[in-house]
Amino acid sequence: MRNLKSTTLIFELSKKGRRGAHLPACDVGGPSAAELLPAEALAAEPPPLPEVAEPEVVRHFTNLSTLNMSVDTHFYPLGSCTMKYNSKRNERIAGLPGLADLHPYQPESTLQGILQLFHELQQYFGEISGLPAVSLQPAAGAHGELTALMVAAAHFRKLGQKRTKILAPDSAHGTNPASAKMAGFEFVTVKSLPTGNVDMDDLRSKLDDTVAVFMITNPNTLGMFDKTVGEIANLVHSFGGLIYLDGANMNAILGIARPGDFGADMMHYNPHKTFSGPHGGGGPGAGPICVTETLRPYLPCPVVEKTDGQYRLVYDKPDSIGRVRSFFGNVGVLIRAYCYIRTHGPDGLKRVSETAVLNANYLLSKVKHFLPVPQGARCMHEFVASGLTLKKSKGISAMDVAKRLLDYGFHAPTVYFPLTVPEAMMIEPTETESKETLDSFAEVLFRITEESGELLHEAPHTTPISRPDEVRAARQPVIKWTPAAT
Ligand SMILES: *Cc1c(COP(=O)(O)O)cnc(C)c1O
């Protein structure tokens, strides 16, 4: 099954003098490059690019594209990431010339359509979150966290309060501490209880008037809704601190619970998780943030406002933290989010979350009989199974199971996160999967737990490369191709 051809580099396909297209000689007069540029700026040799014919280029990249697993090719239950199927309709709309061909330097009067879309999207995000003041600028969830923490810092500066700390539970996504550090704060971890809920006693012991923000992910990474969130918010507020909701898990509560109503002062969305933005491969995401009216003055500029029937990009905000992204943010992702929200409507969005939660609970009810799920009575959009007994009885790790799933045509779940569950496998099926897909995934997962250790330690067996040596890849990365000596 090993596809050797697929690992050939396009540089290795190169044949001297081969061309993708042969253009006729230029027959219009004018100065040559040698006449226009100083001699020292001219290269002596053309760059050593691959010389290949058009069909070779097309086949090379088309074949490469089939090596990846994607939502369009495989079930992708990657917990915390919400890898749902994204409707092609939204792709088509984002690609319409009237949207895709806009230029950010066009006069505002000719950008009224896209500005209206932004303005309405701000309102929708505000309505869904219960936090009315919105910035569409941040370029990813992590960037939204950073932006909101900068907003919080500006707020406390304005109040003349010196607050130096950000708190978050030990189950928090790695971007939470990273954002806190980037925004210039000290980061302090708060313990979680075995239930996944925040340990209130530990939180209380760490709260004082130097704490700026408590960051919470709710539903949390165990797929549980922390019902103490209101109590937590009251406690943090009583010390003058703010609550940040990491909104990566909004797919579980759209139209059902609003962060602004359960105590959050700020949050981000991941439109590439929840609102049908393409996701993965390092492509563009977005991280729009929503904050309370109190924090509105500090939002990044420009904001889109409507005055006298005209949509305007407003830069004149004296307390604003300034720009965090060139132009208007990742517009294509925002357009898809707009289409997603408009085509579902309020009832449809609620049904998205209800179905996502139903699908996760259905899968949980099958999986927990052969893989223990420590918090497995019920879940929200995802659940975390533990491979600990499998490890102890047969020496099979969560990594072995994850790798073996690839042989069966399923993307692996998120493994070893959260750190609070040993041999964690975090499974999030999303609402776009059928009962048949969930059934066959559960069946394959069961079959894998029955397989032999030898088979599993070497898996995957059907992919172009099996298991890279992760330590060597990190310590001695080979990231440059060197042609063989001729
Ligand atoms: C995905 C995720 C983030 C970060 O979002 P990016 O868009 O990848 O930067 C933050 N927190 C949680 C819980 C997440 O799942």
From TrEMBL:
Keyword Oxidoreductase: yes
EC category: oxidoreductase
Glycine dehydrogenase C-terminal domain: residues covered: 353-455
Catalysed transformations (reactions): N(6)-[(R)-lipoyl]-L-lysyl-[glycine-cleavage complex H protein] + glycine + H(+) = N(6)-[(R)-S(8)-aminomethyldihydrolipoyl]-L-lysyl-[glycine-cleavage complex H protein] + CO2
One Pfam match: GcvP2_C
UniProt keyword terms in alphabetical order: Oxidoreductase, Pyridoxal phosphate
Family: Belongs to the GcvP family. C-terminal subunit subfamily.
Protein name, per record: Probable glycine dehydrogenase (decarboxylating) subunit 2
